[in-house]
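for the writeup, i need someone to sanity check this before i put it in the appendix. the sequnce is what the collaborator sent (i think, or maybe the updated version? ugh). structure was predicted straight from it, no edits. if anything looks off just tell me and ill rerun, i have time this weekend
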Amino acid sequence: MAKEPVAPEAQQTQREWKIVGVVGGGAMGSGIAYEVARNLDARVIVSEPDQLALAHARANVERLVERPAQKGQITRETADAWLARFTWTTALEDFAPA
């Protein structure tokens, strides 16, 4: 099955994401952050209001990354590369580059 060509106006609206900020790393935020790290070659900044919540968010993302690594769907190097894209913070000021 041949791919349909992308319309020129659609090509012009595509942009390269370099930094993505996610405020809140609960179930939804962790999932979004994981998908960004997995699908884009972009830095991901995840924020929570305190260190305890931030630790939970980090554990959620690490669990999401480890699952395909343990199943042999991705290499250890790929998993480590995805995790290296993350910055964890409690300061919203750290979103300035995003």
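Helices lie at 8-13, 27-39, 51-70, 76-84. The chain is about 50% helix and 15% strand.
thx in advance!!
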